[in-house]
Amino acid sequence: MKLIQLIPIVFFILSGCATPKHSYQDFVPETRLQPGVEQGFRVLAAIEDWRDSGVDIIAGQKYRISAKGKWRTYGLCNWTDADGLDLYNLLCFPSAIIPVVVKGWSHSALIAKIDSNGIPFGVGKETKWIAPRSGRLLFRINDTVGANWDNEGYVDVSLKQLTFDSPKKIANFDMVTVAPVLKQPITIISKKAKVNIQQENTYKQNRFALIIGNSDYSYSPLKNPVNDARDMAKLLKSLGFNVQLEQNANQQRMEEAIDEFGRKLTANSIALFYFAGHGVQVNGENYLIPVGAVINRQSDVRYKAVNTGQVLNALGDSDNRLNIVILDACRNNPLPRSFRSSSRGLARLEGPKGTIFGFATSPGSVAADGENDNGIYTEYLLKHIGAAGLTIEQVFKRVLKDVDSATEGKQIPWTESSFTGEFSFY
Questions:
Q1: Neighbours of 12 (CB within 10 A)
Q2: 145 and 248: one domain?
């Protein structure tokens, strides 16, 4: 057989072995899900850029995404499921020069985005969430875009629309992108919504919170700070924050927690520090009082309490996008009466650029612990942080208004900010 006759045969054989670029993409049925209806599709580790689910999700609706299967991003890596855990080994390890689409997730994790211009977010093996806006839902493996040709395997993804059965269960979601107001109806954000919130703020990536609540003081014990911390941690977790909760922490534990918190932060992260308990100012500096601190004189505070400067230094070192510092920490002065400073409450703070401070009351004033299960300030924080359609500035303004009204002007929350961007908790 002549060479000229072999060419079409060879071409036919080679073309038959090649994998089409859009192996599943060309046959996606478009489906508008109804509650309880499930849509299934396969996401390949290789070849596909973004896998079209065929589903246009609706803002404010609740969904569950689950994935089963095995894949990996390189032949020497371990096989993993959609969480991407245990992918790496001695021959396959994460590298700063091989970027992932969603930071903080393994190269082998399942990720998603809404529409082609949406910001990707991590999904993993199972996620329950509330859609922040309407649009087509897309999926892929968390590998470098355009460099997934050497990946192997696939996961079968199931997408299901759920019903709102109980407000309490909403807070248990792994990721919530439109926050519910607990014990109140859900507010749906549509494309026609008047609130102009940047898209980058609708996804819950790289959000970290350190929550500390101290109640069991030997001097002036408090009723509510531990309750406040638990409720705040629960709410922030439902809003996509990676939450570290410390209750009745001594000085060593508080300082260790602040150090651990700071190490988690990156240039793209959002950091929130919340403290409920006793706080004092001495010589113009603010100190958070640990449980177990033996303070016999004012000078002991410097060595036996935690200076807020430690928190601000941890935030500043990370050069992250936004810092939120909330101090419900000036309920009264826990120092022995004979050694108390003439300065009441907390002093004003200056933090790194991009920081928002929320104080339970104005500088030099004292806040109430509250007669219910939460301090008055935190009670209204919990209410408004969970409200859909609010920027962070609007949250603090509503808290101020409600606390002012509830205390008949005796307690005025205070906010200071050097943040110039836009942020919403949902």
A1: 9
A2: no
> Looking at the structure, do residues 304 and 257 belong to the same domain, yes or no?
yes
Average pLDDT over residues 345-371: 75
**Comparison of pLDDT for 370 and 248, the residue scoring more:** 248
Q: Which domain holds residue 30?
A: 24-170
Query: What per-residue confidence (pLDDT) applies to 100?
Result: 78
65 closest CA partner among 48, 43, 80, 46: 43
DSSP string, 399-421: HHHHHHHHTTTS---EEEE---S
What would you report as the CA-atom Rg of the chain, rounded to the nearest whole angstrom?
A: 26
Whether the model clears a pTM of 0.85, i.e. scores above it, the answer is no
The span from the CA of 411 to the CA of 191, in Å, is: 38
| Residue 130 token pair | 């509330």
Query: Contact 226/248 with Cβ under 8 angstroms?
Result: yes
**280 domain-assigned:** yes
Place of tokens 């959609």: 82
- The CATH number of whichever domain residue 249 belongs to comes to 3.40.50.1460
Spatial neighbors of 158 by CB under 8 A, at least 6 apart, are 38, 39, 40, 64, 65, 66, 67, 68
Tell me the C-alpha distance between 278 and 221, whole Å: 9
SS3 (DSSP) at 56: strand
Q: Would you say residue 192 has pLDDT above 60?
A: no
